[in-house]
Design a protein that fits this description.
68% helix, globular, mainly alpha, 0% strand
Length: 202
């Protein structure tokens, strides 16, 4: 795991890695990344007939260890039936509380991934929110870590990576969530290409 108390030179290196991935984005990747949270916001809004905070909260609560499409399926089912299912007990409990009317910011861990994911969906123009998942972490450090634990449940480590995205965003003149989304699109597709190439070589 990366150290929580990273030196300034390490932080600058992480920022440079993020900026490098951003600069490698194709026009199509750039457009899809820029649209990512706006589209998620629209999905959350439609799912709850205009209560976008509730929709974003349920999506975020049910997001751990799920693909985006499964995440949406689980959230839509939960909103429709009023009873979230097919997830870990903690995630189901959080989603149930949000469906019952408790504000997501009182339910979700706001200084970690699911809380920040909620903020990015609820307000795509949020000035500081950054959803740091394993891919966002790996982009910053400059290499994929596979299934290794990144230690992002530690607030200090999460905030270190999030701060690097904010610095990269300031350098690029973008919102932190936009930088995260665009680089995420580039990185995931790079990983998919590398995996396909390895399969062909076998």
């Amino acid at each position: 795991m990366i150290p929580i108390m990273a030196s300034e030179s390490t932080r600058r290196r992480y920022v440079a890695n993020i900026v490098s991935v951003w600069q490698s984005a194709s026009p199509d990747q750039l457009a899809r990344g820029r649209a990512w949270y706006r589209t998620a916001h629209q999905v959350a809004d439609m799912m709850t007939d205009g209560d976008v905070r509730k929709g974003a909260g349920v999506i975020a609560a049910l997001s751990p260890q799920t693909s985006w499409w499964l995440n949406i399926e689980l959230a839509a089912d939960a909103v429709e039936t009023g009873r979230p299912t097919r997830h870990f007990r903690d995630a189901l409990s959080k989603a149930s509380k949000i469906l019952a009317g408790i504000d997501p910011e009182e339910v979700l861990p706001m200084r970690r991934k699911t809380g920040q994911f909620f903020l990015c969906i609820a307000d795509p123009e949020h000035p500081t929110a950054v959803c740091v998942d394993r891919h966002a972490h790996d982009i910053a450090i400059g290499r994929p870590l596979g299934q290794q634990d990144r230690g992002l449940t530690a607030h200090g480590r999460y905030e270190l990576v999030a701060d690097c995205y904010r610095r990269a965003a300031a350098r690029l003149g973008e919102r932190p969530s936009t930088v995260q989304a665009v680089t995420w699109v580039v990185w995931r597709e790079r990983l998919d290409r590398d995996a396909a190439r390895r399969d062909q070589e076998v």
